Amino acid sequence: MNIETVNQTLSEADCLYDQQQVEAALDKMAAAMTQVLKNSDPLVLCVLTGAIIPAGHLLTRLNFPMQIDYIHATRYAGETSGGELNWQVRPSHPLAGRNILIIDDILDEGITLDAIMAHCRAEGASEVYSAVLVEKQHDRKNGLQADFVGLRTDDRYLFGYGMDYKGYLRNAPGIYAVKGL
Ligand SMILES: O=P(O)(O)OC[C@H]1O[C@H](OP(=O)(O)OP(=O)(O)O)[C@H](O)[C@@H]1O
Ligand code: HPA
Fold first, then answer.
1. Judging by beta carbons within 10 Å of its beta carbon (0-12, 13-18, 19+), is residue 161 exposed, middle or buried?
2. Is the ipTM, as predicted for this complex, more than 0.95?
3. Which domain of life is it from (predicted)?
4. Rounded alpha-carbon distances, angstroms, from residue 97 to 110, 149, 173
């Protein structure tokens, strides 16, 4: 996309949740996560690239001991429909015996989260929890539910707070739906 198209996409998009609404959802998520995870010494796995922004916002709201790592898995690669999951970086910490918290920006069809959870379990993780800022509502999901969900949206193509449209607009300060998608 050229810069004009990026700017036009943003100006034409529907804002589904503004920054204040997202921040309030992050507060609620963090409170729920604290209740469950505060004594579990979790290893947090941020799923790059999209989790960069929600993880940053969430983790400073969690005031208990944890370690933080990242993984890089992608199956959209700048497209608006997903393909095969492609692992770019696996976790560098050993997962055996650890309580794991996976943080991602969005649960759409659930394939990414399912594969990452399966990987953690295969490596011998104890409990595996998942937190997503957004869960999309549609009937193409694989049945997986995240333990902590910030916001729910209709079945539109989204960007902002970590989610990209064609590689851009992850930094948009709200949750937006692309016009016509
Ligand atoms: O539930 P699913 O249908 O599997 O989709 C969700 C995944 O898609 C996005 O990642 P993407 O592959 O676009 O990589 P990115 O994190 O670099 O944006 C998003 O960050 C989730 O990881
Ligand atoms: O709607 C979306 N937007 C951005 N990234 C995504 N990955 C899965 N669904 C989406």
1. buried
2. yes
3. Bacteria
4. 25, 25, 37
Q: How far is the CA of 36 from the centre of ligand 1 (A)?
A: 25
Look up residue 71 and give its amino acid. Answer: I
Helix (H, G, I), strand (E, B) or coil at 181: coil
Distance (Å, whole) CA 150 – CA 41: 22
Domain 3-177, CATH number (from 3.10.180.10, 1.20.1250.10, 3.40.50.2020, 2.40.50.100):
3.40.50.2020
Q: Residue 99 and residue 21: Cα distance in Å, rounded? A: 30
- Among protein residues, the one whose CA lies closest to atom 3 of ligand 2: 158
Residues with CB under 6 A from ligand 1: 47, 49-50, 74-76, 82, 104-112, 164
Annotate 151-174 with three-state secondary structure.
EEECCCCEEECCECECCECCCCCC
pLDDT digit string, tens, across residues 86-130? 889 888 899 999 999 999 999 999 999 999 999 999 999 999 999
List the chain domain ranges.
3-177
Which amino acid type is present at position 21?
Q
